[in-house]
Amino acid sequence: MTLGRLAYAHVVHPLYHFAKRDGVNRAVRELRRNQWLAANAIDAIQQEKLRRILVHAHGHVPYYRDAIDALGVDPRELAQAETFACLPVLTKATIRRNHDRLQTTALAGNRLQLNSTSGSTGEPLKFYTDDAISTYLKASVIRNKEWTGWRRSSREVSLWGAPVDASKAEALRGRVHGAITGSLFLSAYDMTEEAMDSYLSSIARHQPILLVSYPSILEVFATHCRTRATRVESLRAIITSAETLLPHQRDLIEKTFETPVFNRYGCREVGDIAHECASHAGLHVNSDCVLVEIVDGSGRPCSRGETGDVLVTSLHNYGMPLIRYAIGDRAAWSLRTRCECGRGLPLLAGIEGRSMDVVSTRSGKHIGGTYWTILLRSRPGFTQFQVVQDTPDGIRVRFVRDDRFDAGVLEYYTQRIREKCGAEFHVEFQEEKALEPSAAGKRRLVVSNVDRTLPA
Ligand SMILES: [Zn+2]
After folding, report:
1. Cα of 205 to ligand 1 centre, how many Å?
2. What is the whole-number distance in angstroms between the Cα of residue 348 and the centre of ligand 1?
3. 42: CA distance to ligand 1 center in Å?
4. Ramachandran angles phi, psi of 311, nearest 5°
5. pLDDT at position 16 over 60
6. Terminus-to-terminus CA distance in the chain, angstroms?
7. Taking the CA atoms of the chain, what radius of gyration do you get in angstroms?
């Protein structure tokens, strides 16, 4: 280790976190302790946090005051499973309709920050987070990353694309933060052969132990590394997130980088929900920060191993409580009741979220799934869409129109796509009455039927 690296790990990094004094350190200590408690002790912590947020919601959040009064139960009793399940499911549409009534009227120095989903699975959703949840969001990211062997002084690289993250990382503040925290940000939206070669050089200089990215992007990047017969020597772990991790992707990524993949499941609204530990026997739910329910079509809790709809309740967002929020993914509880790692946090067997392939052009550009979904939501006109690539020369966009549709939007998208993929790139729009989910129930938003030849 060079002198600079030593000074960084033992002086700069600890000073930075000490100076921030934002309560994150305290929350990290709490979460580190909680994870080793027995399952029933963790349940008790969750119940107490849930009780507190429900009492707050009833007292200070107009939408929940009405919803809880309508049930006619004492909010202090509401945390019990049977009564809690009587609360209405919160959908994205309900959040949009009740945006103001879902905010607390009692901030008491707790600041609210406006946040938004990237819009990659639908129209962007605006919501508020407060100081309390920001602290726990950061702390649970830290706890989860520690499961991979990462430490707070470790170097990492993100191959990421959400524009909100990209612009934050590129701003001066983001670059300074990146330099201090040892994180390097590379755009997942410009995956040309040249860009990937330059990423490999940047990564070799940066020497990260952790790489964070989307499964579909890592599939492209791993394939590229194989053609260059190169690997990243310093890597010790890879975190995949934001899309369903398919078995062939995990296999390719682990073989190429000779390092384990840790799957992460989370969302912007409530943060990291679940994460794999080094036993790779499922994903541990951060159940001291978020309450997860899995319910069947009639709203009843699913038994272990049975796939159902995921409802999440954030246990720390007092500014805008999201209670029984239907996030739009499907998952199943693991049949295992304990994990070899010894953590008491419950396990999910797997998640069926959105699945997004990468679109590749003949000129060697690879454009990740989130690029398409964000673009095709940037104008009104489509209620549903699916990007299908059958040949390297173009794509087909299947769509269902909404009442704000006009033909100009097709022209607009064609232009944007040709700027990205080349003037020759063929873009065809195909109107549909409805788009059905695939047999497995997955929402396949970007589907590629083009065979990218994978070197052995
Ligand atoms: Zn474990």
Report:
1. 33
2. 11
3. 15
4. -115, 135
5. yes
6. 35
7. 22
Residue 328 · residue 312 · CB < 8 Å: no
List 313's β-bridge partners, or say none. Answer: 291
- Superfamily name with CATH number, domain 357-448: ANL, C-terminal domain (3.30.300.30)
Output the 3-class SS for 421-437. HCCCCEEEEEECCCCCC
Q: Which amino acid is at 255?
A: K
Question: What secondary structure letter does DSSP report for 12?
Answer: I
Taking the whole predicted model, whether its pTM rises above 0.90 is answered as no
* Nearest partner of 241 among 169, 310, 172, 161, judged by Cα: 161
Structure tokens at 367: 């454009």
Average pLDDT over residues 82-90: 91
pLDDT, mean of residues 296-320: 93
Question: Pairing relation of β-strands 443-448 and 261-267?
Answer: unpaired
Q: Is the pLDDT of residue 23 over 70?
A: yes
Ion ligand 1: protein residues whose beta carbon lies under 5 Å: 277, 279, 339, 341, 343
Element (H, E) at 211: strand 210-213
